[in-house]
Amino acid sequence: MITEQKPLHSGYGPETTAQEIVAGQDLRGKTAIVTGGHGGIGLETTRALAGAGATVIVGARSVERAREILAPLSNVEVIELNLLDPSSVEAFANTFMSSGRALDLLILNAGASFMPEIKEARGFDTHFATNYLGHFQLTLRLWEALKRSGNARVVALSSIGHMTGPIDFDDLHFNKRPYDKNISYGESKTACSLFAVELDRRGQAFGVRAFAVHPGAILSGLVRHLSNEDLAAWGVTRKEDGTYASSGGFKTVEQGAATSVWCAVSPMLNGMGGVYCENCDIAEIVPADSQLQHGVRPWAIDPVSAMKLWDISEKLLNSPKDTIPSAGTELIHNV
Known about the structure:
With 335 residues, the chain is an alpha/beta fold. The chain has eleven helices and ten strands. The strands form two sheets. Strands 3-2-1-4-5-6-9-10 form an eight-stranded mixed β-sheet, sandwiched between helices. The protein has a two-stranded antiparallel ribbon with strand order 7-8.
């Protein structure tokens, strides 16, 4: 079923918190995975889902640190996960799959932002490899558990950063272009949105739906790589203790996690998927040249680009083609 990229007028908004989304919901018996679920909006996502009764597995590079942070929460497990290391992704998936559990919610939350030019071991751009490709590999390996649910949702964290432009498929890793941290980050987040489009097309016949999420602007550790000049352009000051002060316009982590949680559990989205969401609603499509800090640009939900990215990703990972079966060659247009 095609979901129109058009607001539902959900009744929620930018100030809604994750706890408000799960209020009154009973998620007991549900199993969720949240990558990076021990910090920032990932931690708040974990807190909301676990508080509503779900069992939450957190993927973290530092298991000891994550367990320390998550100790006050019930129903939470931690498994080591480094999205830049294919063997780590494989080990995480193997550990979960060996439990035989169904996977109801997969929140692809972990990420890197505004990094200097760094290539990971395979020579891939770090933003692309962390924010998108590692999550793509993880989803492929967890596919059978998602199918087992019969009613699973996958939530991929995108960003308004996608507005920097479409993916340059001829130079994914900045081997030809001058490196630009904003473009690198933006293209990785466009990739996350396109991933949700194609995963939803392939998955809906198996009861698996996918959503892309812009959480909003949040002052978290993800901005640590920005210079003071970069921050000043956003009206932000880095204080001596490493925290930040702003002139406004930023969400709290509780508000930032709300759209991820809404996409994961809201009954309003039953039977829907393959759309880009923000402020606890489906976002509107805005023109390609729009300078608005909201809405989704056409290239981030383009089904042809989504299929192309999927095929390229399978080749980059040397994974078997169509691990998640294609629904056919027809294109589902949601624009």
